User: What shape does this take?
Amino acid sequence: MILSDTDILDRLHEGSLVVDPLDDIDQQVQPASVDLRLGSAFLEFQRTNISCIHPTRKREVSEYISETVVDDGEEFILHPGDFVLGTTKERVEIPRDLVANVEGRSSLGRLAVVVHATAGFVDPGYRGQVTLELSNLGTAPVALTPGMRVSQLVFTELSSPADRPYGTDRGSKYQDQDGPQASRIGDDPEFDT
Assistant: This one.
């Protein structure tokens, strides 16, 4: 069951669901979602002449990413064909009986900006800011301003609370993340050598 605004507000009030800061409840809480705003940090992939990035080699991934922090009142220009990692301004805490899906806002979608490639699912038990996979599929650059509403979370109630929620007890790689996080696929157990 997808939570309505009434259910979302009840859970926010009782503290079982956390979205912080939630500066404008009337604007951010939608009929069946919560709008999240764009943070100020971005991870950009550098153009390079290498044959490929080996995602399981941690050093290689970090070598081709640089961080850009946009000052208050400034913009980040997302050019056609670009892919960058951004983050939400808000930190979320998802309880064990909910999952959340990250969706783009239709107003940005109509400008050809998408907010996730594949990482649109937020597990029960997750805490932290949400990394956004920002792409411009259009033909014109788009200016993104930190603080603008850029995505939304849709919450679905599980049939029962997760016995093994996302978190440090599971060795979850992105728990309590602050800012955009590059891939940590090299930390997956199948790549241990």
The chain has a mean pLDDT of 91. The helical segments are 5-14, 25-28, 58-63, 106-109.
